[in-house]
Design brief:
The chain has 19 helices and 8 strands. The protein is of the alpha+beta class. The protein is globular and about 50 Å long. The protein starts with a helix and ends with a helix.
Length: 466
């Protein structure tokens, strides 16, 4: 039973680790919202004291958070912040004006305080910019609305001896959360509008997305350690309240430019990631993440994030070269050829060394493989030989088949039955093939020579030749 419990715990831990890795790698959506990192927005909201200060820092060039250019005028858009209060629910929306009567919602923050003091918070990206249900929340929230181990980054988690609900003490300690729930809170609604912005703000040219990514890449450990993606609303009534309550604004310009692919131009310079990273290192030289190296990018410009244990460079054997193919490892193929059957003509011929062929056993080096078919002389009856008729006077085996010097002035000995007299009956041609070796004519030269002294008229010439 204990083993089963441990297995379940390990499986849950592995599942949570895999899920967090997948969430951390969702860094390029190919949507306009890529130029407004909601993790950075949530971090800024946590550190802000008022909504007015939150709006000001959100549009500050030094924070490097806002990189939106929705109308395509090559200037950063000003993001306005509006708080819509419904009893204990604050719907804090962020909007961009694209005309006198046209604006687009960017994201919305839901903050709700329960009767027991518990505070729930989620940051939801607009569907036109981030897709459906792009939700960011603090890591202290859990499936049971706040009974998980709280975020270790906050000292308030350790200050209270009794822990009823850790989420209450974590989120309620945020300065901006305390500010919006004070009794004399004045609801913040941005006073700025189209072409009427604060005097301290000056628009700047937007950066390429890879520059923006290179800067925020050094914050990834903080972002993923304090916040996370979630797939549902903590309170389902929030979605109905926001989309059905008339709070959301949509722009025709954003819809049209998205359908035309105008926002994809921001991904056209992956090399700018090094520039964004250099800006972070210059501003934060002592940060631990300043030494982090940027990942590489694939052909689509998406960061290539390596996972431990999955980067196997080769599926072959250890020590094998993955760039070399081995097509010649065929059974029985010793010639190194990749064609099937290429070894048959010259390598699988065991009959070349058999007894009765009229020549000694030869090695493969003495007789190279030949591709010509065996064409024996019709006048011969030597079926056992596989040697082709070679009229060359200098064969590779002169001592085995021609024991007598082939002088054109004399007749050949009877060991070559190809030159008998017309009226004389041929001797049995199968006699050399029936004997185990043909070398014997060199030991018995007198037998054929003594049988022809009267016909040749040269009885002693063969002896003098030997």
């Amino acid at each position: 039973m204990k083993n089963n419990i441990w297995l379940i715990i390990i499986a849950l831990l592995l599942f949570g680790n895999t899920k967090s890795k997948a969430q951390a790698e969702e860094e390029k959506l190919d949507l306009p919202g890529d130029n407004l990192n909601l993790y950075a927005v949530m971090k800024l909201f946590q550190e802000s004291e008022t909504l007015e200060g939150f709006e000001r820092k959100l549009n500050d060039e030094e924070t490097q958070i806002n990189n939106l250019d929705l109308d395509g005028d090559n200037q950063i858009d000003y993001i306005r912040v509006f708080d819509n209060v419904d009893r204990k629910l604050h719907t804090i929306s962020m909007k961009v004006a694209l005309g006198q009567d046209e604006e687009q919602d960017v994201a919305v923050i839901f903050v709700e305080k329960k009767d027991d003091g518990q505070v729930l918070i989620q940051l939801v990206g607009d569907e036109d910019l981030y897709g459906k249900d792009y939700i960011i929340e603090p890591n202290s929230l859990s499936e049971d609305n706040g009974r998980e181990t709280p975020n270790p980054g906050y000292s308030a988690d350790r200050e209270r001896p009794t822990v009823r609900n850790n989420t209450t003490y974590v989120i309620s300690s945020w300065p901006v959360v305390q500010y919006i729930y004070v009794p004399d809170y004045v609801v913040w609604r941005s006073p700025w509008r189209w072409r009427y912005y604060p005097t301290y703000w000056r628009p700047w040219r937007p950066h390429y997305w890879h520059y923006y990514y290179g800067y925020h890449y050094h914050y990834r450990n903080y972002y993923n350690g304090h916040f996370r993606r979630w797939n549902a609303y903590r309170n389902p009534a929030w979605q109905t309240h926001y989309y059905g309550g008339g709070y959301r604004s949509r722009s025709v310009t954003v819809t049209r430019r998205s359908s035309r692919g105008d926002y994809r131009k921001t991904y056209s310079k992956p090399s700018s990631a090094r520039q964004g990273s250099a800006v972070f290192v210059k501003r934060n030289p002592t940060a631990p993440s300043a030494k982090d190296r940027l990942p590489s990018f694939d052909r689509t410009g998406r960061p290539v994030v390596s996972r431990p244990g999955t980067s196997r460079p080769s599926t072959g054997r250890p020590g094998a070269n993955p760039d070399v193919s081995r097509p010649v490892t065929r059974p029985g193929g010793g010639n190194g050829s990749s064609r099937p059957g290429a070894e048959r003509p010259g390598t699988e011929r065991p009959e070349t060394g058999r007894l009765g062929t009229g020549r000694p056993v030869t090695t493969p080096n003495e007789r190279p493989a030949t591709t010509r078919p065996v064409t024996p002389n019709p006048s011969r009856e030597r079926p056992a030989t596989t040697r082709p008729d070679n009229p060359n006077p200098n064969p590779q085996r002169p001592a085995t088949t021609r024991p007598v010097n082939p002088n054109p002035d004399r007749e050949r000995p009877v060991t070559r039955p190809v030159t008998p007299s017309p009226g004389r009956e041929r001797p049995a041609p199968t006699q050399p093939s029936s004997r185990p070796a043909v070398e014997r004519p060199t030991n018995r030269p007198s037998t054929p020579a003594s049988s022809r002294p009267s016909e040749r008229g040269r009885p002693t010439e063969p002896r003098s030749n030997r």
